[in-house]
């Protein structure tokens, strides 16, 4: 039997076009509206309705509950670290060297596979929906939405910059100036398809940075993203002249760490149920802490000039 959720049109929504009501008030994505339309899952006062119909104060709108039928990935038993969870989303602490989601020929062993198994154990069936991505070697905070509406709202927060991502990176050199903004568009690499390059015809890319500490010939840098281009932080720091330690693609080799020294330390967002600002932290992994100690051994940390 089909299940519907019922909404009453309020005075302030009188005269709204139905499609506008669905997008602005219920915050449904265009994709979900199309899916509901195909399933004849939108009823206004008990009757099927066109999306351009205007709603009136007191109207009754019934929306079909479209449930996911599968996870989208194969559930696989594995460890996940949950940093935050509510009825709409989770923030996980991704280990280094693990893919977020199956890609190419890799179909197992990803964070998405492990999360699907965790939800399966709870008898919850929902498509696994990462809201953003982290490179395989990058550790730290990553958000998964529990349903399509939550995914859409969180993606809107990303666009509106109320969902903020903060990273820490160990880089080669003493960063100067100690803080600033990197505004350099990113596009395809002219000869290497798995890389990106600074390209004036590419997509806009903006990274804000500040030095947390510096050592003899390395710096610990905090970064915040306005955009989320592939390899953005790694490429921007290399472009600035301070490549990430251990980054085999854009950075420099570093004996103190066997992967790129990049960690998604914090993520800040507006909680969906009440719009409260929430800040979640992923503790530094041991290999990052060890790498910092290697840098400190050369010279005691010196705080940058403010």
UniProtKB/TrEMBL annotation:
Signal peptide: none annotated. Keywords: Isomerase, RNA-binding. PROSITE patterns: PSI_RLU, S4. The active site is at 135. The keyword Isomerase applies. Gene3D superfamilies: Pseudouridine synthase, RNA-binding S4 domain. InterPro entries: PsdUridine_synth_cat_dom_sf, PsdUridine_synth_RluA-like_CS, PsdUridine_synth_RluC/D, PsdUridine_synth_RsuA/RluA, RluA_PseudoU_synthase, S4_RNA-bd_sf. Residues 89-239 form the Pseudouridine synthase RsuA/RluA-like domain. It catalyses: a uridine in RNA = a pseudouridine in RNA. The keyword Isomerase applies. Its EC number is 5.4.99.-. GO terms for molecular function: catalytic activity, acting on RNA; pseudouridine synthase activity; RNA binding. It comes from the Bacteria. One of its GO terms (biological process) is enzyme-directed rRNA pseudouridine synthesis. Responsible for synthesis of pseudouridine from uracil. Belongs to the pseudouridine synthase RluA family. This is Pseudouridine synthase. It comes from Propionispira arboris.
